[in-house]
Amino acid sequence: xxxxxxxxxxDTEMRRFNDLGGKTAPARVAVVAAGxxxxxxxxxxETLATLxxxxxxxxxxxxxxxxxxxxxxxxxVSDERLSERRNGRKGERLHRATRMTMVVFEESFGQDPxxxxxxxxxxxxxxxxxxxxxxxxxxxxHRDLRHSPGxxxxxxxxxxxxxxxxxxxxxxPCQIIANACASGTNAIGHAFxxxxxxxxxxxxxGGYDAISELVFVGFDSLQASTPEKCRPFDRDRSGMVLGExxxxxxxxxxxxxxxxxxxxxxxxxxxxxxTDNHHLTQPDPSGSGPRRAMEQALQSGNxxxxxxxxxxxxxxxxxxxxxxxxxxxxxxxxxVPMSSTKSMMGHSxxxxxxxxxxVCLLALQAQFLPPNIxxxxxxxxxxxxxxxxxxxxxxxxxxxxxxFGFGGANASILIQKLAA
Amino acid sequence: xxxxxxxxxxxxxLGRGVDTVWGRLIRGDEAPRQxxxxxxxxxxxxxxxxxADALEDLPPHPRLRRAxxxxxxxxxxxxxxxxxxxxxxxxxxxxGMALVFAVSNGGVIYTKRFYHNVVEAGAQSASPLxxxxxxxNAPASHLAAILGITGASYTLVGDGAVGVLAMQMASDLLDNxxxxxxxxxxxxxxxxxxCDAYHKWRLLKKxxxxxxxxxxxxxxxxxxxxxxxxxxxxxxxxxxxxxxxxNFFQRREAKKIVRRILHNLxxxxxxxxxxxxxxxxDLAEQKAIERELASALVYSVKPALGESVGASALWQxxxxxxxxxxxxLPQMPHLPQHIGLNFPxxxxxxxxxxxxxxxxxxxxxxxxxxxx
Lengths: 420, 372
Hints:
The structure holds 2 protein chains of 2 kinds. Chain A is of the alpha/beta class. Chain A has helices at residues 4-7, 11-19, 43-52, 79-84, 88-93, 96-111, 129-140, 148-153, 159-167, 183-196, 213-221, 254-259, 288-300, 319-333, 342-345, 352-366, and strands spanning 29-38, 41-42, 58-60, 73-75, 119-123, 174-177, 202-209, 245-253, 266-275, 310-312, 337-339, 368-369, 385-386, 392-393, 398-405, 409-416. Chain A is globular and about 60 Å long. Chain B has a single domain (4-371), classed as Peroxisomal Thiolase, Chain A, domain 1. Helix content of chain B is 34%, strand content 23%.
């Protein structure tokens, strides 16, 4: 049996290597294409420009009535621009989530048309929820239910992904992960593990979520969302604002990608997952759940905390999340620069981890640190190195992205710039 | 790497416990019809419900105090699977255990109640107690807390095939080497709203019995419950192949993908645990079986237990495992007279392998093969 040093593997990797009968070393996992749509913009270029401009993309909610809610704002994807991309009459029946998913497929497969996934792993929290609402409202008010078969057919969470795959002639099996707000990062992390193990060569992954009244009102009822600005890690933070969007990644065995001459945008190198059983909606105040996820990601990536140059925090701006996450980051990473880009676009739930992973890739490619906007006063209980209000240039090689959710779902991924 | 079933738990409209439910299926019992209605409409449907006494000895846990039926079903099945696994392979370290939870409709009862308040009285009436229970991963979170699982927990959403996709994910997690075992759970709760939705989608019939393989199909009856399967390196039944299948874009295309799955999983001395439920699925599976494995014995639990959607594929897994363990399969009720499939004529079977064929109602299909 080979020693760890000979292969440069840590203990976990060596165990995997031995479990695979010593035939295959853990594979390196390349990102060969990615697509994104969010309140920050459509595609990589718009997203990068908005991040650099430190723009607040949160606006008054227009999709449903929020008069009786405390919070009245959200990060929203332009309906007009989504409508421009409708695909004939069928497009009119599709849910907004499907149309957002198609936008990101278009960008990703535009970058690498030859990418053919063996498996698709996508995160979401609510699928086509607004169609479920339409159906229930029509039932409740004894209104016209002629459209109900369409609402029902387009409601399931796998539907946007299957429709997008159909449009791009892909028939890979779809695993739809619904781990609340950690879904997107869990999806990318599991896809990474699948390629890394050598069992799969190519996996499509990411997350999507479209804003809906039920979810908006739900967070409002918990008083988790704020009537003010979203100020992650600020002393005066008062809650989150919701967002929406989608992002996907084409992950491929690095050797395979290089062999076919694919462009490599970055490398996923580590993943951590933990479950915090403290409470259904609140993290253990000790930060132990997030900390375990981050430690695992480092261990899985064979990196130390000192190797990380930037952290894209979950940072919802709720009192409890930021305190628990901030404590864990401070203990583990000390003063590593960090920001929550939810301050700019809101919290897109199942899409958040995927969109924020694109933000991380952009930061690595353009060598800058994305900002934590609306930041006024440091929370002196948290010893953090926040990137306040303005993006700035920086040399970065390795970044960590966190996502934590209801049900105690915690996920962290480690991404690195691939050396030329 | 060997992937084995070390323990199983089963909560169904025919009761709780693998031996109990299996015994009733072998006897030819069918779940009783229960009417299901809602103030929002004067329409009444039929469903197969889990009897209240099935959960009487569920241990008290703070997480179950307000939890919906789906979480209670899952807790009962998960606890039972662990108890059986401990008697089969010894002590199990929950720190080295992953959880994969398969669901389709999720906590629909609380979701409906939550949104009903919003529709009826406005957003200011929305309940902060109900909302967290509407989230798809709430049942998995409760189960993880009850069992002390602190590592990986994934909730997978899909149609009836999601249970097989969950088994695939569990297999991937165990192959990745970070876990010693994985508890795969499928659960669903029945509600009037679901019945109405499936009825509007022309998949539901109002009264039992569920009559399989009719042309045109006559419809299904919705049911509820849970199944839990603990996967480990040792056990009593092996998962020797999984085909995660793919998606069909039109119902008429289902046959093609089901046939491909059957072709990939075909083997000698195999029986097929079908997902036929009285809908378009029956014809897709019938045609595929006739072309690929015409002589194989075919059995479906759905005439007796109903369509439990997110739990259904794992119900099939348990039925397949029980068939192989006991060398028996229940006989099938309400079949048409002339049909080119081979159904169990008596309870005794000689199969050493079972294909779990799972074609869902919402475009997904997958399968796996068990062996003993």
